[in-house]
Amino acid sequence: MPKYLMLAVLLAALTIAFAEDLRLDIMWSNDVHGGIDRAQATFMNPEFPPQLGGGASAATLIKMVRSWQTPQRQSLLLDVGDFFQGRPVGTVTKGKAVMEYMNYIGYDAMTIGNHEFDILQDDLEETLELANFPILTCNVIDERTGQIPWYAFPYTIVNRMGLRIGILGFTTTDTEKMSFPENIRHIKFLDEKESVSKYVKILREEELVDMVIVLGHAGLPYDVEPTYLSRYDAKGNPLYAERTAHWGWDAQEIAREVDGIDLFIGGHMHRGVPKPWIDPYTHTMVIQGYAYGSNLGLITLTIDPETKTISGYESPALREGSMITLFEDQFIPDDKAMEMIEAQVAIAEEGMDEVVGYAGVHLSRTNVDAQSPMGNTIVEAMKYMVNADFSFLNLGGVRAEIKSGPVTYRNVFEVMPFDNMVVSFKCNGEFLRRIIETRVEGSRAGLIVAGVNVIYSKKRPNFDRVTSLKIGGEPWDPNKIYTVVTTDFLMQGNAGLNMLMQVPEEDITYHQINLRDAIVHYFKENSPVNTKIDDRWERNDNSVPTAEMLKWTQQ
């Protein structure tokens, strides 16, 4: 029996077994990143990947769940943000293709993720204006008006089976650290916990809803239970006098510290949680799925019709919990959805399969310290493009890897889906050293680099951790002027590199070269590419400053 038929039989049986209760099927997606097209599940089997049906297979599953509707059983379809940036069909169309699909299948609400701000505000507004469903965020403010931007609402209320269900959305404040300043100009991100608390209270006390669902573009920590025990004591009280975390509030913290939430659907982490996590004190249930459209979340809430409270839940996919992998042979793609998606893909992916070069080795993105073959290849490409002395990139900027063999533009796009541009600048050696020291300060892991050889020790004081530094094979000179290349994203002070905003404009060159195109150029000029991990970056906690370093740093 096909898997989707077994799923149908199971859920039909559950409907009979709990006929006295109301049943609410919650379907959700998070961090789709444009993944509405067909794709191979290389994360499951790199050599023989199963075929995923993307949005068209999701449409089949969604329609199947909706076919089970009765007066006592209804459904919701929700999205938790980061819906378009990543796959070509999403990125090239600035989300419009994905929005067309979401309208077709009938989403009930969506919250805004951080990657929605990867494009200019005018472009984002054009895309969100197309939505036939509410766009939600309660903590994003237009500083010019002091209000939530016109294209969004803090919450929406839907009616199902006589229940008033409040759906509230928020956007991680991490967005401020990860977005181009120009893209969030006039935009302010308010504290997540304070904003959610405010609107949950409004929903409960003024709107008199029976249930509150939060769509939060923030997720559970990777180690859920150990993290919880490090944060809260046996009575559920915070172990910290004052929260000092560098990042925004996550799903676990909000579930514990904000009363009145029934269901929290998270995202942002790209890591699914098969079994819902339930806070032992507030009893808020937290669920989240994997990214890139590989799965659709599905959980069925059992609701007592008299108290209008959740009395239980079922995860219909027995093996996968609340996440259903969208295998194409198990969920036959919906014809209309497939036609719509393929038409958009054909436009967006023109020329994507052109071979641009060859990889002589597997360019993995698995990091050893701050190095990976894929990361090293990217910074070598940047350095080669502008003939620089030193190039660097943040560790989170590498999104895929490339197998040995022919390399296509599509492969490069998967590695670098963002529209970052190549930027170079002139600076002295001391400023260059400060860049490196900043990225090994505290618990930071460093930078992806080319053109330098760095040895550092975590046992040494912050900003004095580099024990050996060579540039172009020559000892570092603090007074020498070097040409440095990076991306416009980092030049705007992101990833903790605020000092880059101090570089005078006259020392900066904007090359008008997309980083993807720089990588393509490098493959065309240098194939086969055989980049490996080498001695360019080394952590050695037993190292001491070289004579050259001491000579200059003690002056």
Question: Helices and strands in order, then pairings?
Answer:
Blueprint: H1 3-17, E1 22-29, E2 39-40, E3 51-52, H2 54-66, E4 73-79, H3 88-91, H4 96-105, E5 109-111, H5 121-128, E6 135-136, E7 140-142, E8 155-160, E9 163-171, H6 175-178, E10 187-189, H7 192-205, E11 211-217, H8 224-231, H9 251-257, E12 263-266, E13 277-278, E14 285-288, E15 295-304, E16 309-314, E17 323-325, H10 335-348, E18 355-359, H11 373-386, E19 390-393, E20 405-408, H12 409-415, E21 421-428, H13 429-438, E22 448-450, E23 452-456, E24 466-471, E25 474-475, E26 481-487, H14 488-491, E27 508-514, H15 515-526, E28 537-539, H16 547-553
Helix pairs in contact: 2-10, 4-10, 11-15
Please provide a brief summary of the model.
This protein has about 550 residues and is an alpha/beta fold. Helices cover about 25% and strands about 25% of the residues.
